[in-house]
Every structure is written in structure tokens, then in C-alpha cells.
Amino acid sequence: MKLIACPVENLLKPVRSVSGIVERNQSLPVVSNILIEQTGGSVCFVTTDLDIQIRTTADVGVPGSEGRFTVSAQKTSEILAALRPLDNIEVSLTEDGLAEFATSGGRFTMQTLPAQDFPVIKPQNWASTFSIPSKTLRYLLTMTAFAMAQKEIRYFLMGVLLVVEGSKLRAVATDTHRLAYCEAEVDDLMQAERVEAIVPRKTVRELLRILPEDDTPVEVNLGDTQIGFNFAGIEFFSKLIEGKFPDYQRVMPTEDTNPQCVRLNREELLLALRRVQILTNEKFHGVRWLFSEGELLIQGNNAEQEEASQTLSVPWRWADLDIGFNLLYMIELLSNLKNAEVDFHFAATPKSVLVTMPESTSFRYLIMPMRI
Q1: CA distances (Å), 199 to each of 19, 160, 163, 193, 245, in order?
Q2: What's the fold here for domain 2-117?
Q3: What is the pLDDT of residues 213-261, one digit of tens each?
Q4: Which helix (H) or strand (E) covers residue 343, if one does?
Q5: Do 253-367 and 128-250 have the same topology in CATH?
Q6: Could you tell me the pTM of the whole model?
Q7: DSSP of 35-51, one letter per residue?
Q8: Which of 14, 75, 133, 372 could form an SS bridge with 324, CB 3.0 to 4.6 Å?
Q9: Distance CA 139, CA 332 (A)
């Protein structure tokens, strides 16, 4: 029974949209598959990892036919990616229940699993709903996601905190050694009561992969244990992380606590750090910043007693300061920022440093010093 007939590129697009969350080694085999539901010309594609679910549709079906099956997400993606985009492809279910992908140059026959065994996440009742341009949501996540914890006993740090309050949407992430904060004004958003949600790390990464880089509206739905995103024909549901996120407002330095502000050229600083990185300890990644009148000396070394240093001319006019940082944290920060200059706010003694963008209060970054 023929269910799908279209150019390869028309089928590859929805398959790629939903396949990113699928992991190879699953204890439940059907979760490694895509659920394909065809009713006439419309075909629905669904994947899940039991915590996240992505659904999209495409008009690639054969009118007058109907069918449901699941097939390997990884193999399907690889087969379609290996074919010529403009070639026509037909997808059929054989009498033996196999899925057959056929083009003029050959065919691929794969095992299927019953569609009724596929676990579908049902959305809950939403407590808050609003719309935001896709590029704005991407910006908020991009500017904070790099500070998420990777492996942390405090599981609630392995994600991005979203805070909806008034007309603002805030994103915050921290691994306790650094903290990134970014906010944006959202048109027509007026949330009377503050709403918070911790979005898991994998969900954030997947959103950054598939969110359009334009003004496509994204409908965001927040519930007690779920978050949903609807955009560009995609429905995206995810469980939230339960737990109490740290009080980021209490730990964030201010320009009053850190009055020594020096403005540095972002690209020059990034290049200097990457040069020093070549001979820096690969385990601890620690580098020293030594400020003196009009100068910044960056030093790094490794276990082989090799050293690297870079000197930059900077408008430093306070007492000499010797402070250490995690090199990778600084490189990640500067790589995500796109503006020409960056403001570093230091206290008179080595303690947490505030990083901001000139003439902007939407982004703030805290980094703790290292003892070198």
C-alpha cells in the first residue's frame, strides 16, 4: 500500500525536524522510531524520548490512502540524506508490514514496529500562553545556554530558567561558577503574576537547532510540569525540571559593588585567549589576568612547564589587579557575544566579575575567579 509520494527533499525536511531528539540506544525500541501517520495528502511525523515530543506535518501523502507505522529515525534520515534531493520517492507498507522506500535508482526495505506501541505525550492545561518572535527566543537561549551545567548533582542547574513577568521574558543559566542572564521585551505580553520554568538542557539544545532565525511567531505555553512551543508547523512539548533555581538576583554583582569598569575589544581579547590556550593546562584551564596602568597581561601554563603570554593595551587606571579565570568560560562568553566591545566590571579585590555589553542592560554575565 503506497502511502507517500513526493520529491526526496520534501520528505527529508519533516524527518530532520523531528529526528534530533532520538537517541540510538533506547531501552524501549519503539522510541528510536518515527511515528508516521498518513491520512490522504497529509502526513504527520512524531518522535519522542519520553521527556520531549516533536510533531510536524507535511503534504506528501497519497490521496485516498491511509496508514500508521513506525520506522527507525536514524536509518530513515540517513537514507533520505544520501539520495538526490529532487528525485521522487515512494513510501509503502508491504503485506509483511515492512516499510519500503523506493526511488528510480533502487529501494530500501526496513523493519517497522506497531504504531499503537508508540508513547505519545499529551499536553496539559496551560497556565500561561504568549507569543514571541523566533529570533528573540533564539537570542535569549543562545546568550544563556552556554552557562548551563553539564553534569551536576543539582539537576535543576542542567537547564535554562525562563521567567515571565510583566512585559519581559528572562532567561538565566548557571553552573555555580558562572551565570548568564538575558532579557527581552515581548510585545503584547502582560503577565500579571510571575511565572518560572526550568527548561531541560536537551530541550534547549534542540530548540536552538530547529528554531527559525527570523520573525516567525513562536507560541509558548507554560504549565506546571510541561512547556510547549508551536512554530512553523512544528509542535514541541517537553517536561520541565522540577526544583528551586538559585536566586540569581542576589548573587549578581552590580556596578556599585564592582565599580572598576574597563572596556575591552572583544575580538582582540578572544584572539589573545585562544593563543594562550595553546599552552594552557588542559585539565584546569586556568589563566591569570594581570592589570597594570594601561595594560593587561594574560598568562597561561601547563604541566610541562610551558608558558604563553599575551599583552593588550587597555584603559586600566586603578591599582594593579591579579585575578584568575577559567579560560574556556571566557572563550565561550566572547564567542557568543557579537558586539565589538565588552565591559568588564571588577571589584577592588578579586571576587566575582560582572560582564555587560556597552549601552545595554539586557545581558549580564557573572564569572567567578579561579585561584591560580
Answers
A1: 19, 5, 11, 19, 11
A2: DNA Polymerase III; Chain A, domain 2 (3.10.150)
A3: 999 999 999 999 999 999 999 999 999 999 999 999 999 999 999 999 9
A4: strand 341-346
A5: yes
A6: 0.93
A7: EEEEETTEEEEEEE-SS
A8: 372
A9: 15
